[in-house]
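Lab notebook page, bench 4
Experiment: in silico fold of construct C2
Operator: M.H.
Input chain length: 256 residues
Purpose: comparison with the prior construct
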Amino acid sequence: MNVLVFDIETVPDVAAGRRLYGLELGDEDVARVMIHRRREESGQDFLRHYLHKVVAISVLLRRHDECRLWSLGDVEAPEAEIIGRFFEGIDRFSPTLVSWNGSGFDLPVLHYRALLHKIPCARYWETGDGDSAFRFNNYLSRYHARHTDVMDVLAGYQARATVPLDELSVFLGFPGKQGHDGAGVWDRYRRGEIEGIRHYCETDVLNTYLVFLRLELMRGHLMPETHRQEEERLKAVLAAADRPHLAAFLSAWEGA
């Protein structure tokens, strides 16, 4: 395996909101205006992708004998550094990217934010001109495996067949989000709870990876014994981490 499972957490880009709408307000009020304008425009609160500021990217790297989970950068790292580290990992390892709704949200957000911060990411954008191996299997095509959006694949690429990660995880006997959800990230961010946001992001990565392993078993890419070994390897990683949120995840998983 050479797999990088990832998830991002975002908040409204209030600095961009001030520039776009000529506002001289505090962060909370700017965010309210941004959401209100979006609701008037589309009937929904969900901001356009480019107006999502990335505050956390968590990843799980499964490569050779390595299985490692972490959040990129330190707690104080600026957005540009976090996104730069993500694309540096792709340049270094050329992994299979694994996500949940990465095609619909995470990657488009990262495209716009990398554009904003002038972050080079040539390997990610490779489509065969520099490396022929990427011509028919690259990160950009929705139907190529170099990026596997697990939600998309399981839904047969039909939007009406998608399910929330939390619900599917619990359905399969995994811990799910354990009382947290993405809607609370903005409030936690304003309270300065970046570490908690990173922890929440890491558990989303774990749920995504477990569903991905089950998908690989179903597709015949993993044999039953290998699948069991991969789950046991992950349990050992969580047990050895000695981090409360990972211990809670492991306890919920084993108790399911």
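Observations: The first strand starts at residue 2 and ends at 12. The mean pLDDT is 94.
Next step: discuss at group meeting.
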